[in-house]
Write a structure and sequence with these properties.
alpha+beta; 131 residues; two-stranded antiparallel sheet
Length: 131
């Protein structure tokens, strides 16, 4: 798994427009165009870059840190020659809206510090290439 790359954008429409995929996704435009992929990339890239910068800063001072977002979401197949193949993406995040949590649990979860084992994460809707 890696952070997303600009070169991934070309794969988004190919995967999302596949009938085996789009019938399971809610809320995406159809047909899913490159422009939609570019917009999606912009949405996911900014918070990931912020987390990566935080982790890079921790390396400089040799500190162990915990972060609030998962900086990797792109699934790739590593090849023997050092290259990789984009397979898709999957996201893990803390639910800011509290869906799937009881109302009192939402407030408790929001107050938990990064790294706490009691944090409830959610699996974000994403897509995987079908080969």
């Amino acid at each position: 798994m890696t952070p997303p790359r600009p070169s991934d954008i070309v794969y988004y429409p190919l995967i999302v427009n596949d009938p085996r995929v789009y019938e399971w996704l809610i809320g995406l435009s159809f047909p899913y165009l490159r422009e939609h992929g570019e917009a999606w990339y912009a949405i996911i890239k900014q918070p990931i870059d912020a987390v990566l910068a935080e982790l890079d800063a921790a390396k400089v001072i040799n500190a162990l840190v915990t972060v609030n977002k998962c900086p990797v979401r792109t699934i790739r197949k590593a090849l023997d020659n050092g290259e990789d193949i984009y397979l898709g993406e999957i996201g893990f995040d803390r639910p800011e809206d509290g869906k799937l949590l009881a109302p009192l649990d939402v407030e408790v979860d929001k107050k938990l510090a990064s790294g706490c084992v009691h944090i409830i994460f959610r699996l974000l809707p994403s897509f995987i290439a079908i080969y």
